[in-house]
Design goal:
415 residues; mainly beta; Immunoglobulin-like; Methylamine Dehydrogenase, Chain H; 2 domains; four-stranded antiparallel beta sheet; 1 helix; 35 strands; globular; disordered N terminus
Length: 415
């Protein structure tokens, strides 16, 4: 049994250390909700009299195969189409259907059966150009967009029977790209807007949008995307390559920008330390230490990386302006983070109940993160004596944070 575990761990380790970005093909309008599982939509225009047909496809194996789960005909004498889609898990999702003149009339639909059937959710809204759709849970969602004359933006809260406008300022609009809306819970959320002078603002609510307070203003850089993995820790990117970070819910911000990132189109953090940014010309940058250091990865494409989605700490998807869908399931391996047992020590290893973790020369340890074979973080702690009695048997990957540096090691949990 021990030989089998050790062999399995060796194979897993090589998967982590040598995994690459893989092009999954020409796919657009895709959202990935779990590793390998995702949805995409397709709009087809038939004739002005019959209107449009919109379809939803799903995959269980990273689009090696896909299934048509929903196929509907829109309203006649007008091009009905899906404008946006968002899923909170593999079964529950929210979509917008645009119709009418210039597609400015929006209705919303929810599914709870993997996209097979969709029912009305909220109330329709009009004179609207969608920028963001965000589903919080089965009973709550948010939708942002701008009036068609681009004079002002608006944010709506969607419930089962209502669509309530909760933010609107005549001179403020949402960006047409990036992520403008991020909710960490049903009550706490952040939005990014800009005024006619291109000054960008970040607003925060802690009461489901009833009240908003400004937490960030930038007159020099156009903020392009926001990512908050929890209520307090968040990151904002600018179009010209800057990254700002807060650890206190927007009260204070620090610059954690990469040395050279040029334009940034998308950003996503799965937790307070692990995140990716998508840049121009196919560049992708990653951090494992909350922005203290960044490493660049080769995507294999040369168009802008416009959307980044992390489904867990080790599985990342992104899409390019050329409509290529890419996947990297190697989020924990970086060239600066190699497994070096001459620097990091785990004792005993293999172990059954308790392990002790240390660094060479009694180096300072600020935090320790432990991941299982699926790439799911199972523990984050500042303790160096760790009880693993209730861990499942198998291989575990460890990241040790020490000042501005991080180190990696591994251990085997026995039964």
């Amino acid at each position: 049994m021990r030989k089998f575990i050790i062999l399995s761990c060796f194979l897993f380790l090589n998967y982590f250390m040598f995994g690459q970005w893989v092009n999954l093909g020409q796919k657009k309008n895709v959202t990935m909700v779990e590793s390998n599982i995702g949805y995409r939509y397709v709009n087809e225009f038939v004739t002005p009299a019959t209107g449009g047909i919109y379809k939803v496809f799903s995959t269980q194996n990273d689009w090696q195969t896909e299934s048509l789960v929903n196929d509907e005909v829109g309203e006649p004498y007008g091009y009905s189409k899906i404008e946006g889609i968002d899923f909170i898990n593999s079964s529950d999702g929210l979509r917008t259907i645009a119709s009418g003149w210039q597609g400015s009339y929006f209705k919303f639909q929810k599914t709870a059966d993997y996209g097979v059937t969709w029912e009305a959710f909220g109330q329709p809204i009009s004179n609207f150009a969608l920028t963001d759709l965000y589903m919080v849970n089965n009973t709550l969602g948010y939708v942002a967009g701008n009036a068609y004359d681009l004079s002002h933006g608006a944010l709506y809260k969607l419930t089962q029977s209502s669509s309530i406008q909760i933010f609107e300022v005549d001179t403020l609009t949402f960006n047409s790209g990036g992520t403008n809306v991020e909710f960490t819970s049903a009550s706490t959320g952040y939005i990014v807007v800009r005024d006619t002078n291109q000054i960008t603002y970040v607003y925060k609510t802690v009461d489901s949008g009833n009240n908003w307070n400004g937490v960030f203003t930038d007159a020099e850089h156009t903020l392009s995307s926001v990512s908050f993995p929890d209520d307090l820790v968040g990151y904002i990117s600018s179009a010209d390559g800057l990254i700002f970070k807060t650890i206190d819910g927007g009260v204070n911000w620090e610059d954690v920008s990469p040395e050279s990132s040029e334009s940034i189109y998308s950003i996503d953090f799965i937790n307070e330390t692990v995140g990716y940014i998508g840049c121009g010309e196919g560049r992708i940058l990653r951090t494992l230490d909350g922005g203290l250091t960044w490493d660049e990865q080769v995507s294999g494409v040369y168009s802008n990386i416009e959307n980044i989605e992390m489904t867990n700490p080790t599985t990342v998807y992104c899409s390019s302006a050329g409509e290529s869908l890419l996947k990297n399931s190697d989020a924990l391996s970086v060239k600066q983070t190699t497994i070096d047992n001459s620097v990091c020590f785990v004792y005993p290893n293999p172990a059954e109940d308790v392990i002790s973790i240390s660094l060479q020369n009694n180096g300072e340890i600020n935090n320790i993160e432990i991941y299982n074979q699926l790439g799911v973080r199972v523990l984050s702690t500042k303790k160096t004596e760790i009880d693993i009695l209730n861990f499942e048997s198998g291989f575990y990957y460890v990241i040790i944070f020490s000042g501005k540096h991080h180190f990696s090691t591994n251990f085997i949990k026995l039964r």
